[in-house]
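ok here's the first one, seq then struct tokens
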Amino acid sequence: MTLVIDEQEPKHNSDIFLPTELWLDILSLSTRNSIAAISLTCRSLRWIAQPLLFQDLVIRPFLKSTTYRKPRRTLYVARRHKRLDFFSSPRIACHIRSISVIPYPPVARKHNVPNPNVVAQVFSALPLFTNLRSLVLHSILCTSERLTILQNLSLDNFELDIRRGDIWGVPTRRSTLTPIPAQRVFSFNCNAGPHERLNPSLFSLQFVHPDTLEEIHSGLDGTEIMLVAMSLSPSAFHSLRTLDISVYFIDSPQFVPAMHQCPHLATLHLRAPVTPARSLPRMSHIPSDILQALVVYHGPPFLAAFFAQDRAIRDFKLWTSRDPSSVLCPTELAPILLRLGSSVETLELGVTELPPFLIETITDSLPNLKSLSVNSHLSSNSPGTVITHIIQTKVSPPRIGAVGAVGAQLDLNNLSLGVRFPATFPIGSPVHEKIVLSLWGKFPHRYNRVMSLRWATGPAWSKIMWSRLDKDIRYNEALGTLSIEHTESFNTYASLK
């Protein structure tokens, strides 16, 4: 589409043209392709529809982001300036909601050198986008002028991904304070690697709106700087509900002071790689006066008991990776479950098998459990559309607990199981339905033996789900819907032919 700056509104024929407000309501229900087609019909409709096509902008000021895309510098800069002039026009600028300044994928870090003229024009135009709510900056040099512009912004979401070499070029002895204008969600260096760690003494963050922040996400390269900024903030993070950080810094001196600043934190996510770069931190004790509002723990199983002590956590996600190699043995998992507390209502775990002693541990130590997920988080990393097939309705749940009339039995509302099916039959076929029903009838004692191959490794993963519907009054028995969920990718289509 040709970017034409048309600042003068065309005259409408009132006899055949609807009011602009009605057109905006109609276009709000249309797809992007439909809006693009409508904007090409006439000047009047272009005036109304065209700005809606540019609500989300992706700007790539990186000339050498890939080896196959190397346009001439003068042509490249001229084209970027023309595009930015169009986006900065009053008619378009007020409709822009999101801007992402990122490299071309795939990238080589040494090639991520943004063109300074293009970046300067982007920052100078930011105050013109009066309705901007989201800003993503990757590998951008933050000069004093640009930091001033960031200080004056008011955003819902702000994502900052920086590297030591990309920003500073040469080491500096002067610490740089970067303002964070996010009001709801802030993400910092979530994609950074451990070999490019920033020095906290040379780079620091300043939260402009700490009282309104709801979520904070940070990767391995940014967690230490994030915790320092949170602990030094003059205002507490009263609205913060979700904190997503690297697990390697929970034993740092800044962790406890930062948690004191988050009195209402409800969800704590501790990131850990599949192949740890170093051993996990050893925890001895977590002060009882922090994280009292914590409801959800998502992180390494070995650290769950420390956070469960003196806290009524209701949701435990005891996994850090979707890789099947990250699951635990039952003997490793059982002592952890004994220390989680009786307040647990939701449990997600990865385990190689479900022997009777592990089932007894779950039923005895978690009497209020309502939702159980076993290996449902595992994935084959195959992109595609998630499809759900209903196998049967009004299915009774399996008996999970002690055998016979004596002993505790779990009264679950939701149960999900990760399984790997043979690739010889399409998922959702009668053969797979038969396997699911057979597995369901023999769960949990035959969970590991129903699969034709060892399920701990394999290319295709699915999720069997049972959700409670209602109780049958005649038999006083819980009934639910049994279904299977899988990702329909290219390989699945090929198997259907």
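and now the second one, same deal
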Amino acid sequence: MRRTIGGALVTLAALLGCVACTAPAGPAPASSAASAPVAAPSSPQAAPSPPGRSMTVAVLGDSLSRGYNACSHFGDCPSVSWSGGTDDRVDSVATRLGAAAGARVTVRNLARSGATVSDLARQATEAVTLQPDLVTLLIGANDVCRATVADMTSTEDYTTAVSAALQQIAQYSPDTVVLVASIPDVTALLPVAAGNPTARFLWAQGGCATALQDPQSTAPDAVERRAAVSARIREYDAALAGACGVLPRCVTDGGALHRYTPTLQQLSAFDRFHPSVAGLRELAQLEWRALSRSPRAAALLEPAG
């Protein structure tokens, strides 16, 4: 999700003393303000777990899977990723997988801050070379977080890209389980944070104008704009569910992340959009619940014998 808030943070620090010197301890949605400028994926990380059986997790998506703005510095912080992070405060999906399966888990975080669904083909191609045990996918917020509604990625283009990527993984890495997260409804941030002056200041710097511009406005055009964003996200989620549903080793969260509404403390103090550590822990819990309860992932979760 693209944001240019570095300068805004300096300004806000001058106004308020220090903005978010440390993110709150502990979504948003969404998978998912918009992601930062594109950043390179991290090197492999090993989640702490027992020796013996080895597993690989590949993380696909955008800044929502990069721990963006969740640490004590601006930008990516993959150690607190909901999917592949190693920080105990988050208890990521990869960490929980290692504990459940009695395995040592290596994570390749291929997600890129700022990515839209158009980047998914590249990420999926790199993922299949790893032949991972698990792939996690959360992408789509940047496709709606644009300057105008007309700039949002069409449902047809989103559907085509997601379907092609999931089919590619199924064809070239057939033993891989894929966990597909639904997309957070970014308009759900409005009742949570629109009344907060700091949040309004940060949102005004850009990044998700379609959802967060004039956040307290009740003018018909503002209401219509937000409704269009929500409708497009629901269409994306339907596309994800449809593309995943036809594949035997693909698991969705059933819309759990889409329905999740964060608290103000679960949003990064750097931008009041991305999840804080507390928000990322909640996200990890939602997605792990979906994975661990799905019959499609039963073999993945079997303890090492």
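notes on #2: DSSP finds twelve helices and six strands in the chain. Residues 2-38 have pLDDT under 50 and may be disordered.
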